[in-house]
Amino acid sequence: MHIAVCDDNIADRKQTERLLGRQSDRFFKECGERLYIDSYGNVEAFLRYPQMYDGLFVDMTLEEPRGFEIVKLLLEAGVVRPIILCVSSIDYRKQYEESGLEIPNLMFIDKPLRVAELTAMIDKIKEIKGDPIPTLELRGKDGTFYAKNDDIVYVKKHGSELTIHIADGRDITLIDEIYNFYDQCAIFPQICPISDYTLINVNHIKKTGFAKVTMDCGESFSISFAYRNAITEAREIIKNSAKG
Q1: Domains of the chain with bracketed CATH
Q2: pLDDT band for position 244 (50/70/90)?
């Protein structure tokens, strides 16, 4: 499992790393799987690819955005895995209660971290990891859609907006940069760019030709020279993932 730690207290961050390292040894003995731990003291770096993690431990207290605000940013980035707020100088439980929000898989653990509580938390993350289907929240003008599996057929940029064509025939329009949206699609390796303005789902390709691809919905797109290998590379990633 991949675990991220985002903490601006250096001593706390190092202690969390050490305790998670011990959890990794325990985890390997029990189920033959390691914990891979990435540690951040910088919010910008932490938010670069948060979708790749199975669990995210957060306690940022010194500067904005602080812990609970970071939770909101993670949700906007499409994170659906457990987010664990480590309660120290800020009462995150109280902030959550006062927010009126309902956030699935948001959890809390107190500092200083205790081995028994951390063990239970890691086991819970493992339990959740095997359960939900990766989901991307699309907040369009007409409501919110939760995209799973091969729901997304293609994404097309029009000015400051993105049109996301869904397999059931609907189009979802939202304001975003296509590069940012592609980062959010890290949970879907079948999504790949074919130009600076278009993303496609390789599982929805009907046929390909010279510098052109036709989707199973009937739409055709040109493939820019810079992205000529993108479809092959995406299919290779999917193939390797299927092998485990």
Answers
A1: 2-129 (3.40.50.2300), 142-242 (2.40.50.1020)
A2: low
